[in-house]
Amino acid sequence: MRHEQSVLEMKGVMSAIFTPFDSSNEINFDALSSIAEYQLSHGLKGFYATGTTGEGLLLSSDERTSVVRHLVEKFGDRATVVAHVGHPSTDVSVGLAKAAAEVGADWISSVAPIYYGTTYEGLVRHYSAISNATDLPFMAYSLGGVIDPLRDAELFEMKNVCGLKYTGANFFSVQQLRRRIGRPVAIMSGFDEQFVAGQSFGFDGGIGSTYNFGPQFYSGIYENYHAGKIAEAAHLQSQINLVTDLMVQYENRSYWKSIMRYIGFDCGGFRLPYGPINESEYQAFAGKLDALGVLERNDAK
């Protein structure tokens, strides 16, 4: 069966990896290497690059491809690299998909159409063009959308569509979808705070933002759950959720990246329309992280 091996290997936990920037707001590839190495050493199996967390839509197409290329060249022999190619323009997404294939990505993925063509019919046209653009396995991405098991099973009849990243809470509908597809597919959960719950519904693993600074928690949840140590997995989920709860209180996603600074990586901030945070703001935020007692300052150094 086409891509059967890729589906079987898509089990475990992956970061929706940040795209770090230097003081000139250019991609900091040295920091990207350090972050990726840290995450692999703490049990992650790979990276979902230039997605929402990776600021894909705030990067140029060349920048997006350069991130994927870098991860493949530095870590492709021991990590799975998924290139998110979502864009409002289907033509741009197709170009990104072809570029990802050329630089050696293992999978491609895309959110549904944004701004234009946001109907189901638009989704079918968008995904069909992307999935036919390369021979790579394609992972659909449901970001807060409604899963209709009967309707959405038809997406998996497209060439190369054999995965789903689901960022939502209706695990039952995803379970129904898998049953209707009737063949092996890779389904990854995207709600970090409910990762352990997703495992109980048969998800193959997870891809998330907080995996960037808490990789040991998510690899630990996965390993403990599948070893039958459910209480231990639930405890780890509860602990890292304290950080998630603090993080989501801030509209400015530059605070998300500042958690990387807290553990020892300087990622810069998010690009506009998000703004930088000043030193006093960072120190106040770091004090709140101290109070949680979940992450260790400079753990990565």
Describe this structure in words.
The protein has 301 residues and is of the alpha/beta class. The chain has a single domain (4-231), classed as TIM Barrel (Alpha-Beta Barrel), CATH 3.20.20.70. It is built from twelve helices and eight strands. It has helices spanning 4-9, 29-41, 61-75, 90-103, 120-131, 149-152, 171-181, 195-200, 215-226, 230-247, 254-263, 279-292, and strands at residues 12-15, 46-49, 80-84, 107-111, 138-143, 161-167, 186-189, 205-208. An eight-stranded parallel barrel has the order 1-2-3-4-5-6-7-8, surrounded by five helices. Helix 7 links the parallel strand 6 (161-167) and strand 7. Helix 4 (90-103) packs parallel to helix 5 (120-131) and helix 11 crosses helix 12 (279-292). The radius of gyration is 18 Å and the shape is globular.
